[in-house]
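Morning F.,

Quick status update on the modeling queue. The single chain you submitted on Monday has been processed. Sequence for confirmation:
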Amino acid sequence: MGELIHPQKTIEILQKHRFHFQKKFGQNFLIDAHVMDKIISSSAITKDEFVLEIGPGIGTMTQFLCEYAGSVEAVEIDANLIPILKDTLRGYDNVTVINEDILKVDIGRLVREKNGGNPIKVVANLPYYITTPIIMGLFESHVPLESVTVMVQKEVAQRMKAEPGTKDYGALSLAVQYYAQPEIVANVPANCFMPRPKVGSAVIRLKCHQKPAVSVKDEKLMFALIRASFNQRRKTLINGLSHFQGICLSKDQIQECIERLGLPVQVRGETLTLAQFAALSDCIGSVSAKAD
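Structure tokens below.
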């Protein structure tokens, strides 16, 4: 099991199939056994579980997943990798490979058909250029998820886990933490990949909440307010929101909502917690409804 994790074996497979890396797909294959162990152990996969792998590459991590999981569905966008995966996964009967763009896959239907609608685990070495759309797509589609364990750019992992008032805190921090509890389980240097990426990487585990971390009346409004608050970080919250066209309130009405939360008028959005954004959203939604 897991012979592909060794650099020489990876090179042999790539040469055998005359594979060429494509920059547009952000392909960096993991070649470090210690990091692989971290990913597998932190995802805590058992034999009765269904795992969705995004971007299996040549099947390095897929082989490990097949050993530990009940069944694995691997979604690979690069058609040139499909013959390689048929070769490297030929010894496993509990894996299905789909040649698709994960952003276009109906994951909800997949979960219903393959796992009876029960929560699944997602494990992936994600292409860095498309990390956020993939993760937010999983959350926003409300697919039943138990956990998402992924390799991402180190800077992105830090943003997902960031606390209010820190430089990394932003819309991504709040969005991820609304749906899950993030934990960085390993920092991964560039020499653990082939080819080497130009940035540092990290494995982050997102343990999904059974219900969102806070209660809010209008989820879409809350996230619109969050984005507006962070669009220009140096602006005060009231100035950021008063220029936001998604709400039809005066500056005085926005100020009234901010003051109702017990916050100073000059507060910046980057200091608000998720619970405070939810309360602000509810207040603004209520005032807007009365105005209508």
